[in-house]
Amino acid sequence: MNPKKIVFTTIEGTTGFSCNPKYIALELLRRRQDLDLVWLVDDMSKEFPAGIRKVKNTLKNRAYELSTAAVWVDNSRKQLECRKRLGQFYLQTWHASIAIKPIGLERGGSFSKIARMVTEHDSRMIDLFVINSAWGEEHAALGMLYHGKMIRTGSARVDALINDRDNIRCKFREKYGLAKDTKIAMYAPTFRSPECEKISVN
């Protein structure tokens, strides 16, 4: 096991450099240059900053990288085949930062048997769960089937928007060629089916 190796995954490797793990990785890059920061990703064409070693998210690669790392950082669930070694540390940052959609047991009949197995397996491995509010803490036990240690410190991706709001707004408007006084509404549906992907919001 490499004590300086940290493996990151977002949404089981599907989304690339994103969400809470992204901002944790950026802070580690800012503070330390001696770490082996590994990112498991399905699509190797996804862009990552220098200092992060992206690895194709295959069963073999996942098994090797996770089993040789001292720390895991994730925002979703680990697969059923995943096993944590003695001495490894698993930080769960979860992607749903404001806990407004039902998860786990809150989903009722749509929470399948396999989903429950994966949820329980993953929750048993977590060492520390990053939560951003009392609301999140209340929903963790039922939604995540998690009863371990939590730390209420915020949500890395949301904190970036709040703590550097003016700079983020300016960069966003510049990127999309918008006037400084343009009002922006965010549309972010979830649990959408494939036939709903082509929604026009114009």
UniProtKB/TrEMBL annotation:
An annotated Gene Ontology molecular function: CDP-glycerol glycerophosphotransferase activity
Classification via InterPro entries: Glycerophosphate_synth, TagF_N, Teichoic_Acid_Biosynth
Q: Which Gene3D superfamilies match?
A: 3.40.50.11820
Name the source's superkingdom.
Bacteria
- GO cellular component term of the entry, any: membrane
Q: Which PANTHER family match?
A: TEICHOIC ACID GLYCEROL-PHOSPHATE PRIMASE, TEICHOIC ACID GLYCEROL-PHOSPHATE TRANSFERASE
- Protein name (database record): Uncharacterized protein
Organism equals Selenomonas ruminis
